Fold these 2 entries.
Entry 1:
Amino acid sequence: MYYVICAAFIAMIGFYGAFQHLKRQPKRRKALTIACKCAATGMAVLVGVLGAARSGLPSNWVMTAGLIACMLADGLLCVRFMVGGAVFAVGHLLYIIAFCMMNRPGWGSLALFIALILLATWLFSRFRTRVNPKRFFPAYAYATVLCVMVALAAAQRPMFLAGAALFAFSDATLAYLGMMEHRSRRLDNISLGAYFTGQFLLALALII
């Protein structure tokens, strides 16, 4: 199992690197670029399936279903942004369900959710003029789902929290990139690197 996990992680890095290289080409092949992005997340799906099959726990299968939804969303995001965002939200909801099936959240999770949603509300109000009015409320709803996911992850094992936190950080930096006049390649690398690492940690937590 150890060698399979290591191989999946190395393959994920390889697919991620190929995706970053292809998307910056003047005449990029869109289908291949999307395939590499989905394949990178697919390595987390592979680990998730192994973990769910090994444990047999329903919560782990729900978590794996969330990983699959996010893998599909990776591709859809490149074609239809709003559709991809909606599928990502479904993935987050599946993570939330899985977390609720694992450990019951306590007051700490509630306190963290309140802190996160207040921070998200402040950020949305601060940058409201830079957000497309048609996307403001869907984006806020998505941020709320993210806050719930991270808060519930805090009641689980540390690896789940680390994965959820990296996922949320990735989405936050991606939103910031969307508001920048000149897109930062370094921040783009950090955002996507955090995303793929977060997904892999969520999957790895099903085994460890």
Entry 2:
Amino acid sequence: MKILKIAGCFVLIVVILILAIDFYLLKIYKDPVISTLPEYEDKIFFEGGSGSGFTDYGKYIYKNDVDFSKNPYFKRVTEDDIKILSEYEKIFASFLTKEYYKEDYDFSMSLADTQDYLYIANRENKEAYSVYKGNFDAFDIYFYDTQGRTLYFMHSNI
């Protein structure tokens, strides 16, 4: 009986430590791409997931224009980029049928034009995604709409 109490206390301590470490890591983690941008004014972020993968959707609203001239990730959007972004967006949107935030997903391809900026992380340029077979299996989309001064973030690894 005493051994069971000790084992129970040990398990409880381990669980508390894991939760504390997880909370700490969430507080200190900074997205390496977003950290290259100036401080945003507001952030709206949704996380979703299941046993087979995760999707995240976020919007970072900026008070002022963002200067991308020296940014190591973002590039000015081309017409070809709009087509590629559209393919990723269709796939991402198709995963939202089960996510609690599907009603809050308000990204529209009508926002995309050649004045905007884009960075797509996939198996070709992100080590963590190199284990996936295709570029659409795991990706991060960072799309900055210059007119709305809003960075849209879409992540999927389903």
